[in-house]
Design brief:
By secondary structure, this protein is an alpha/beta fold. It contains twelve helices and eleven strands.
């Protein structure tokens, strides 16, 4: 991939890039940041929260913990940080006083700053999170993270980049410039922030009146990489974050309850399956290359055939581990009976489920949502062909939590002003992707 994934340190909250139709037509499918600076100078800054085992080991070495003790000390820290959610080294009662003092002198267990928390009428929560600054010119990247509770599961939608490289024409986030990649620690920290906020640690309790799953399981049981960014353009950190999130001695999320959604970065799909072993979702949205070139412009690099071949080769694919295909319903664009039949034909032989997503028009978008009867008809054709095709109910509409609406603060304020004027919100929609578990 020729994409440059860098920090624009000069002004991380700069105005969005306006991606015109003409630019798209000319092949403008990927944005690059203004400056080429290495992302994430220090993972998590001086905080140990979010670090991998190797990074923790290095941090302990740096304060003089002898080599022979490192494995045991990492295990202790791991338990306190990721199993118990410790916020203070003083809580670590099985760590000697002297080492606790050393740790406290050199590091913190600080979380990224929660700038705001919004709670939807339907229980969906959205946090605006500011990451620690990575240098004097960086005000701290801001990302949004959304929690979607249901009776039997709680899904956390996390971001992998600040902004997005790509320019999908139906997506609000696609109009934002790419600021930088998130480090693995910053990705993990989103889960820590969510668990802090909803009391998802041993001995913690959820805030009064909070809607959390009631089946006795974990409050955050599923993760979807469907927030800001294209995860496969930050695959190293995404895989490292998944390793931390799924570690059996800490956060213990099943990899089968982690779904990574890609717009179709074909060359990285096999690596994701082989190394992260997660569920896969594909932002498909069109069944003909000509249309997908417009809706999801990365299709010009990797067309539908290449994408579906990569799906067929996805490691671990089986009926128990189906690929989710996301399909946003755009009136008069991709919602005909013929489109539905072609979708069925294309997916033949791929263990799949299809999420039909009613489009939420956003200010400036040129698309409309398909009529309800049309969505039902489309769904029926797909269903009759043997595919589960749930129509996902958008969640958190009142707090702008739908995917593609995830914007950093500067843009959010602009969007709100426009929205008030135009009475419209939304883009693609955040959904609790059903892994069926
Ligand atoms: S749909 Fe996803 S990949 Fe496409 S522009 Fe939006 S955030 Fe980026």
């Amino acid at each position: 991939m020729a994409t440059v994934l860098d920090i624009a340190k000069r002004n991380p909250n700069a105005a969005p890039v306006a991606v015109s139709d003409a630019a798209r037509a000319a092949g403008f499918i990927e944005k690059t940041a203004e400056l080429n600076v290495v992302a994430g100078a220090a993972p998590g800054g001086a905080s140990l929260v979010g670090l991998t085992r190797d990074q923790l080991k290095d941090s302990l070495s740096a304060i003089g913990v002898p080599e022979r003790e490192l494995k045991m000390r990492v295990a202790q820290l791991w338990h306190w940080i990721y199993f118990r959610g410790a916020k203070d080294f003083a809580e670590m009662t099985n760590v000697g006083k002297e080492l606790r003092a050393k740790l406290a002198a050199a590091y913190t267990l600080a979380r990224p700053q929660v700038v705001s928390e919004q709670v939807s009428k339907d229980g969906t929560r959205k946090w605006l999170i500011r990451m620690p600054s990575t240098g004097p010119l960086d005000k701290g990247a801001e990302i949004e993270c959304v929690y979607i509770p249901e009776v039997d599961r709680g899904t956390l939608c996390v971001s992998s980049q600040v902004g997005c490289t790509l320019t999908c024409s139906f997506c609000h986030t696609g109009t934002q410039r790419l600021v930088r990649n998130l480090t693995s620690a910053e990705i993990v920290a989103q889960l820590i922030v969510a668990r802090d906020s909803i009391g998802d640690w041993p001995d913690a309790t959820p805030p009064e009146g909070a809607f959390v799953p009631t089946d006795g399981g974990r409050f955050v049981s599923n993760i979807v990489f469907m927030g800001m960014g294209e995860p496969l353009y930050n695959i190293g950190d995404v895989i490292a974050a998944i390793d931390v999130m799924s570690d059996g001695e800490g956060l213990t999320l099943s990899r089968r309850r982690i779904t990574v959604s890609t717009s179709g970065v074909v060359p990285q799909m096999e690596r994701l399956g082989a190394e992260a072993n997660t569920m896969l979702a594909i932002s498909l949205h069109a069944v003909r290359d000509e249309l997908r070139d417009e809706l999801v412009p990365i299709n010009r690099k990797y067309d539908i055939k290449q994408l579906l071949d990569a799906c067929r080769a996805y490691p671990g694919l089986s009926n128990a581990r189906r690929i989710t295909f996301e399909y946003v319903m755009l009136k008069g664009v991709n919602d005909s009976d013929a489109d539905a039949r072609e979708l069925v034909r294309l997916l033949k032989g791929i263990p799949a489920k299809i999420n039909l997503i009613p489009f939420n028009p956003w200010p400036g978008s040129k698309y409309e949502c398909s009529d309800w009867e049309r969505i039902e008809r489309f769904s029926e054709i797909v269903y009759r062909a043997g595919y589960a095709s749930p129509v996902r109910t958008p969640r958190g509409r009142d707090i702008l939590a739908a995917c593609g609406q995830l914007k950093s603060e500067t843009e959010k304020l602009r969007a709100r002003a426009r929205m008030m004027a135009e009475q419209g919100i939304g883009a693609e929609g955040v959904y609790a992707v059903g892994n069926g578990e």
